Amino acid sequence: MASLAAATTSAALVKNTLASSASSLSGSRLATPASSFKPLTTRGHSIVAQAALYPNYDLSSFKFEPIRESTVAREMTRRYMTDMITHADTDVVVVGAGSAGLSCAYELSKNPNINIAIVEQSVSPGGGAWLGGQLFSAMVVRKPAHLFLDEIGVPYDEKDTYVVIKHAALFTSTIMSKLLARPNVKLFNAVAAEDLIIKENRVAGVVTNWALVSLNHDTQSCMDPNVMEAKVVVSSCGHDGPFGATGVKRLKSIGMISEVPGMKALDMNSAEDAIVRNTRVVVPGMIVTGMEVAEIDGCPRMGPTFGAMMVSGQKAAHLALKELGFPNALDGSYKLGAMHPEELVLASADDETSAAA
């Protein structure tokens, strides 16, 4: 695990190296003979040795391979339509690709037999996890949720009871890169979940549309939606807003739950525990996770700490596994190997509730 001090030293070394290189360049030639340079090292490898890892092409006369514009259009269209066909009927739809939704999908994707569609209304997934609080960069994660960071390989600065990631985007970009590389996951960004599919008092999927269409229903004529059927829907739409808490707000509007009181004022110590504890199957076929839990239960807001988002997402994944009949950490049937033993504790629930109001 790289420490903050190590990262700072590395950054200083790169800065000095670039400064040295810039001062020695004159036009396209080195002003100082290469033999006069002392080999600098980073993490035990010389700069010269690392140069061998750089792309092997000539930047002074670079030329791309030819392609037809129609080929580009066909490749994008064919692959996207194939994904839409594949996920028209899928195992799990995760609505909302914030930190809770991404963590849930990552945990679920460990099982290659489960197909997962992630629906995100924004062009850029990640929700509020691209920054810390008040547009600051650092992300604070309270222990023991740092074990999830260890698994996905996110470096941090360790403190007594919490850890600090130097930039929230490091977490978000890391988990997305690992998650989206898996063949059983498809992210549909710029797509909004406009409604739920309800069959026999059970959530059976989501109604989808392009996000820009959803925002312009009042300015255009009829623009009917599409659908995704699913065995389980995980709602991780975040706190209230134009597209926030849409899952539980829709449940209330159709009478499947009695109220959505909204989150209470900030109390980090009680908020994070409550969000994880109350992550649950809220009505048959639908699991609620992340800040949407605070909205439906009236929990305090947690502010700029993110551990509950990660662990709530993990728990939601194991609730989905349980709903699908797969081994999971909640009933003790999960076989060790794919997860660290500590994560089983993180994903478990002392007070699991599964009740519709």
Structure description:
Helix content is about 35%, strand content about 20%. It has helices at about 5-25, 45-50, 70-85, 100-110, 145-150, 170-180, 210-215, 245-255, 270-275, 290-295, 305-325, 340-345; strands at about 25, 30, 40, 45, 90-95, 115-120, 140, 155-160, 160-165, 185-190, 190-200, 200-210, 225-235, 280-285, 285-290. It is globular. The chain has about 350 residues and is α/β, with parallel strands linked by helices. The strands form 4 sheets. Strands 5, 6, 10, 11, 12, 13, 14 and 15 form an 8-stranded mixed β-sheet that branches. A 3-stranded antiparallel β-sheet has the order 7-9-8.
Put the structure in a nutshell.
This protein is of the alpha/beta class.
Give a topology summary.
Blueprint: H1 4-23, E1 25-26, E2 29-30, E3 41-42, E4 45-46, H2 47-51, H3 69-86, E5 89-95, H4 99-108, E6 116-120, E7 139-142, H5 146-152, E8 157-158, E9 162-165, H6 168-180, E10 185-189, E11 191-199, E12 202-210, H7 211-214, E13 226-235, H8 246-253, H9 268-277, E14 280-283, E15 286-288, H10 291-297, H11 307-324, H12 341-347
Parallel strand pairs: 5-6, 5-13, 6-10, 13-15
Antiparallel strand pairs: 1-2, 3-4, 7-9, 8-9, 11-12, 12-13, 14-15
Q: Supply the number of helical segments.
A: 12
Strand content: 15-25%
Alpha-carbon Rg, integer: 24 Å
Helix proportion range: 25-40%
Measured distance between first and last alpha carbons: 45 Å
Number of strands: 15
Pfam families: Thi4
GO molecular function, one term: iron ion binding
Enzyme class: transferase
EC number: 2.4.2.60
